[in-house]
Design a protein that fits this description.
This protein is α/β, with parallel strands linked by helices. It has four domains: 1-43, no CATH class; 49-401, Glycoside hydrolase, family 3, N-terminal domain (TIM Barrel); 420-627, Glycoside hydrolase family 3 C-terminal domain (Rossmann fold); 671-790, Immunoglobulin-like (Sandwich). It has 20 helices and 28 strands. Strands 11-8-7-6-5-4-1-12 form an eight-stranded parallel β-sheet, sandwiched between helices. A six-stranded mixed β-sheet has the order 13-18-17-16-14-15, sandwiched between helices. A four-stranded antiparallel β-sheet has the order 22-21-26-27. The radius of gyration is 27 Å and the shape is globular.
Length: 791
């Protein structure tokens, strides 16, 4: 989008269109969007322009009581005094917002609320500019009644971008149905330190896998173009390098150079921008001493000039204020506002970072009027593209047909199935027989619905979320007795009853133990202004929450009495299946050495219990793969598979390799790889390298296989990773049958940021490694380029 508004703003259409049929040009849907933006800008005051960049907390903007639903006085005041242009999380419900199933909004009520808000904007403001309503939507719309899908780390474990695209389409449909037009997500951070509290929100450690998932989410949210029915615009988070903070501290600084940024951290965002993302959110952290929210190189040079990004950039909550706060790079809020908008940050999430600060900065000459106009133009363009000026209201009668449908529930179950990773299956303990006489289901996550949903989840109605206990009871035969004992909590040790759990195990033929972690917020937890939870170690009864925003950790050990419970159950001698439900990799060394079967389900969402049971009892053959390496010890961090050369050497105390490698995952069947073929065709400006091979299901069950292609650059002008994922595909293969996998590589896949500060693909030899994980190479070949390729 290029808008030539500066010179023409006051005169365009004055002689050509006038006010034909009393329709102002910016309200004329037949005109090009660029022209409508120019016209509207020409009619706005400086105060209205500044206000258009303020995004306030939305859940305070409606009132609900016995008389109905209407706009709040707070919204009226904000519109009158601040001329606001956007709202965030209007329909959000959780302990931080203090919105419950009682005082929050059902889907139909949500549609009424957003319609009331838009009606107020059209009828009670000078120009009738509608609000853009942004909603949290990384694994489902964070609103009462919406479908809850697995969190991002579980989505990535599917290694199935097509499925994740379908999921994003469903999320967009539900969000749009109730008035949300902008979804926060996908999160494209490389999770390189599992101590980081928001690991669950990421797609793992690999830029290629993250990029594929990010593209799928953007296309699922937005469709082929912004403004399609039942779609929303995506907001890419968090730009950039937020997921590898020093010490694992959420929002902390990161020590990384430009080459590492370009090789690893920036590519997922570039792919999502190329897919058409409408919005990007800046990260809280600084890079090389420059906060991301005032980093002109990132926002103007890289994002816009080099990548051609056409949308708007939004701050994370209060990150503009953080310039004069935690970062201390601005003397006050006015200077902070000037730094941010000049650097290319358009929208302030909070309403306090810009607002009066930005107005003062403009009036004091710290911000050029053209910079302000460009930021406003970017926001207005998206509003026009979304159709907000032409169709600002949603159909309240269609909400029930679009939100929480049976199809979406089935989709949530399928994502959870495909994202479940079989880590161990000694002696073929799994799948279990449905006709087992007695099974014990034990553990703090066996029957706790909120513990399987992850952070950024709304309150749930009773019975909506299916736990593992529910799933087991639903699948076993009528004659099977299922006994449940919690045994212990995730963190609190004052209410453990390990003895009861042991007795239940002794009575059972097999024991299913469900433990791990929790991101479940409760109404006793206190929260920071940013929404991150405060860690309260002095509470008499500790909450289960040990993950989720704000809950960084110093170790990855199972907390509370969980390991003690697992060891006591193991001592009974009964066959044990461990199911982990959690938001980050945890220390499973003891379990791996002693427990015969282990399933990792991450946070599997509302249908997770049924999906896990499908895998446990063989209705679904697992094929999930790890999107992140699982360390043996905290001292190994960072332990990502694609670290830069040279190869790691062994520690004195233990192997340097992770417990479970990136890409790892087992199946109930076996696959054989064969016949790798490499067909290279070099051209003047690019090359095409086709890599094909066969995979045969040699086991006794039908199942999916996730074939992965890794590349090693043998000699390069700059240091490259020891290996790097470049392609993958998940395919269903019937027992006894064979499938052909085909991948294609070009210069884009093998490029490096050279010593001269330019991209190039260098001539030489590249190893091609094909296998079922990064540490299970089945086939290899050589690709040799005879010339360099420039960009």
């Amino acid at each position: 989008m290029k808008i030539k508004y500066v010179i023409l703003a006051g005169m365009l259409y004055g002689t050509t269109l006038g006010l034909q049929a009393q329709v102002l040009p910016y309200k004329n849907a037949k005109l090009p969007i660029e022209d409508r933006v120019v016209d509207l800008l020409s009619r706005m005051t400086v105060e209205e322009k500044v206000g258009q960049l303020s995004k306030l907390l939305g859940w305070e903007m409606y009132e609900k009581d016995t008389r109905g639903i209407r706009v709040s006085q707070k919204l009226k005041d904000a519109v009158k005094k601040q001329h606001i242009g956007l709202l965030w999380a209007t329909l959000r419900a959780d302990p931080w917002t203090q919105k419950t199933l009682d005082n929050g909004l059902s889907p139909r009520e949500a549609a009424k609320a957003t319609n009331a808000i838009q009606r107020f904007m059209l009828d009670s403001t000078r120009l009738g500019i509608p609000l853009l309503l942004s909603e949290e939507a990384p694994h489902g719309h964070m609103a009462i009644g919406a479908t809850v899908f697995p969190t991002a780390i579980g989505q990535a474990s599917t290694w199935n971008p097509r499925l994740i695209g379908d999921m994003a389409t469903a999320i967009a449909r539900e969000t749009s149905a109730v008035g949300g037009k902008n979804g926060y997500g996908p999160v494209l951070d490389l999770a390189r330190d599992a101590r980081w509290s928001r690991t669950e929100e990421s797609y793992g450690e690999d830029p290629y896998l993250i990029g594929q998932m990010g593209q799928a989410m953007v296309r699922g949210f937005q469709g082929e173009r912004i403004g399609e029915p039942d779609r929303i615009i995506a907001t890419l988070k968090h730009f950039v390098a937020y997921g590898a903070p020093d010490g694992g501290h959420n929002g902390g600084s990161i020590s990384v150079g430009e080459r590492a940024l370009r090789h690893h951290f920036l590519p997922p965002f570039q792919k999502a921008v190329k897919a058409g993302a409408g919005s990007v959110m800046t990260a809280y952290n600084s890079i090389d001493g420059v906060p991301c929210s005032s980093n002109a190189w990132l926002l103007n040079d890289v994002l816009r000039k080099q990548w051609g990004f056409q949308g708007f950039v939004v701050s994370d909550l209060l990150s503009i204020s953080g310039l004069s706060g935690g970062h201390s790079t601005a003397i006050n809020g006015v200077e902070g506002a000037a730094q941010s908008i000049t650097a290319g940050l358009d929208v302030d999430l909070s309403g306090s970072g810009y607002g009066q600060n930005l107005l003062d900065a403009v009036q004091q000459g710290l911000v050029d009027r053209s910079v302000l106009d460009q930021a406003v133009a970017r926001v207005l363009y998206q509003k026009f593209a979304l159709g907000l000026f032409d169709k600002p209201f949603v159909d309240e009668n269609l909400v029930d047909k679009k939100v929480a449908t049976t199809a979406h529930q089935e989709l949530a179950r399928q994502v959870a199935r495909e994202g479940t990773v079989l880590l161990k299956n000694e002696g073929g303990l799994l799948p279990l027989s449905k006709h087992i006489k007695r099974v014990a289901v034990i553990g703090p996550n066996a029957d706790n619905m909120y513990n399987q949903l992850g952070d950024y989840t709304a309150p749930q109605a009773t019975g909506k979320v299916k736990t593992v206990l529910d799933g087991v009871r639903a699948l076993v035969s009528k004659g099977t007795q299922v006994e449940y004992v919690k045994g212990c909590a995730i963190r609190d040790t004052t209410q453990s009853d390990i003895a009861a759990a042991v007795e239940a195990a002794k009575r059972a033929e097999v024991v299913i133990v469900v433990m791990g972690g929790s991101s479940a917020r409760d109404f006793k937890t206190s929260y920071q202004a940013t929404g991150a939870a405060n860690v309260d170690t002095g509470a008499k009864v500790l909450s289960d929450m040990e993950s989720g925003e704000g809950f960084d950790r110093v170790s990855l050990d199972l907390m509370g009495d969980q390991l003690k419970l697992l060891q006591a159950l193991h001592a009974t001698g009964k066959p044990i299946v461990l199911v982990t439900i959690k938001g980050r990799p945890l220390n499973l060394n003891w379990a791996d050495a002693h427990i015969p079967a282990i399933l990792d389900a991450w946070y599997p969402g509302q249908e997770g219990g049924l999906a896990i049971a499908d895998v446990l009892f063989g209705d679904y053959n697992p094929a999930g793969r790890m999107p992140i390496s699982v360390p043996r010890h905290i001292g190994q961090l960072p332990v990502h598979y694609n670290h830069d050369k040279p190869k790691h050497h062994t520690y004195i105390e233990m192997d340097a390799k992770p417990l479970y490698a990136f890409g790892y995952g087992l199946s109930y069947t076996d696959f054989a790889y064969s016949n790798i073929l490499v067909d290279l065709k070099e051209g003047d400006n690019d090359f095409s390298c086709a890599v094909s091979f066969q995979v045969k299901n040699i086991g006794a069950r039908d199942g999916d296989e996730v074939a992965q292609l890794y590349v090693v650059d043998e000699v390069s002008s700059v240091v490259t990773p020891v290996m790097q994922l470049k392609a993958f595909e998940r395919k269903f293969i019937k027992k006894g049958e064979e499938q052909t996998f085909s991948f294609n590589l070009g210069k884009e896949d093998l490029k490096v940021w050279g010593l001269d500060g330019q991209w190039k693909t260098e001539k030489g030899r590249f190893k091609l490694l094909v296998g079922s994980s990064s540490d299970a190479v089945k086939l290899n070949a050589i690709l040799e380029l005879k010339k360099d390729y420039l960009f």
